[in-house]
Structures are given as structure tokens and as C-alpha cells.
Known about the structure:
single chain; alpha+beta; five-stranded antiparallel β-sheet
Amino acid sequence: MKTIEQAINEFCKNVGRTGYGKTCYSQGFKAGVEFAQQWISVKDELPKEYKRVIVKNQAGEWLVAFWNSEEWCLPYTSFIQDFPFEVTHWRPINIE
């Protein structure tokens, strides 16, 4: 997997940007990466119902789950079980 800097360099090379142009593209690229990696507090917003997202708890442990309008659920389970931890944050799997 490429580092962020390697991806920036490859992109700028492909579009022919150097100097100031490369700096602008680099800043925009890094801002996009930061946006894609941000966690959303469950106090601020919940995901669309039944949409799989990455969730984490206070300890930083994470897994894939979905919100069913009442509680967090694990995908691919055919039985009801207690959710393994209290969700504090979530983020999309794919940025739309």
C-alpha cells in the first residue's frame, strides 16, 4: 500500500504539477485523507439505518456494525446477541 506522500507524488506526476501547483494539490489531497479518516460521535449523528459502518468504543477497539434505528447490530448474525461494547464513534466504510 502506498503512503500518502507516494500517492500525492504519483498523482502530481500524472497531472504534470510541480512547484506551487504540486503544493496546492498536496494540501487538497491531505485534506481529503483527513476528511475520510474522521470519526463521527454518536452524540452528533447516527448513520443511515442498516448501512454498514465502522464503529469504535472509548478504548479504540473497532468493528463493522449497523444501526437499526434502535440499537447497534452485527452483520451476518442469525441470532440476537448483546453488542460487544458501547459505541462512541462511527465512520463510513466508503466515502460517498
